[in-house]
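Could you please consider the sequence and fold appended to this message?
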Amino acid sequence: MSAQQLDPLDLYDVRSELSEDEIIVKDTVARFVDDKVIPLMREAFEQHVFPRHLVGEVAELGLLGTSIDGYDCAGLNSVSYGLICQELERGDSALRSFVSVQSSLVMFPIHAYGTEEQKQRWLPAMARGEAIGCFGLTEAHGGSDPGNMKTHAKRDGDDWILNGSKMWITNATIADAAVVWAMTDDGVRGFIVEKGMPGYEAQEIENKFSLRASVTGALFFNDVRLPAANLLPGISGMKGPLSCLTQARYGITWGVIGAAQACLDEAIKYTQDRILFNRPVSHTQAMQIRLADMSRRITTAQLLSLRLGRIKDKGQLKPTQVSLAKWNNCRAALDIARDARDILGGAGISAEYVPIRHMLNLESVITYEGTETIHQLVVGKELTGTNAF
């Protein structure tokens, strides 16, 4: 392949490292994003509305619970799931967040830790988009310290009584079921809390300036009575929710690449069309250096995530490896979005162009599922053997 034929958004030709099936997945989702997602995301962001009508189309493409075998799920490999996240987030982080929560934070724990009855009830419906889930771990006072959990569940005969609250929950007010983690006398346990249960309430968080096309809310539990059948029996302790976060973080490492690619693509086109001092801005050394740096960061992120996916498909994935990629790729994507916004000058603050929307969204993505500092400390602990949290 000659230099003239290199893809500006894929300088190392990562595409050639994909299997035929993985390429089909990527291209199918890319067409869906181009045709159905990108045309409406500006308005959805501006209006603070989640485009819920897309859920059915996402489900028809088999993009929910893709890594699960059976239960009406696609059973795709980890790289395919990563490519799905990449293309969806190229459209907007909100849609990738929806798929990530549904697949990695709700369907994954039900499949990994639930009973066969729970799997049969929820997984096919969630794969078809007929049921929506949310994940309740974060609390207002907890943030990066989820072990400092105040939400608790007490046994009452065969039932459990749940009290507490959760904050910053994606899909909160549209969810039919919430996988909620609570402290018990036996340690942290997971429960399926169903919409309409007495004492369970979800409230949407308004006035966000990030992830505006995503539903974000708070969950409240006031003496919610849960049957024993709603306990996830297969796990106890913080390993349960943390294993879910590992799955979600993996998808994020891919997703932010899509946002960064969208910003670089916009910046290249803008600098080619913008004429200043009698020449296109793209003809200046300063601009070419900035665009080249964006490409360097994207290429590094692509190679990290591809390697991470191959490791995951071998069953050898370690949480530290996910932390490294989440830290690197989110930082790279946010820096690219900010620089692309700056390159566009005054136009950069307009929603007519994508960088400002991706920039604002990535401020959330770099924070949720573990802040940058948390992931740095995870890697630091691995290197030194000392927990500095």
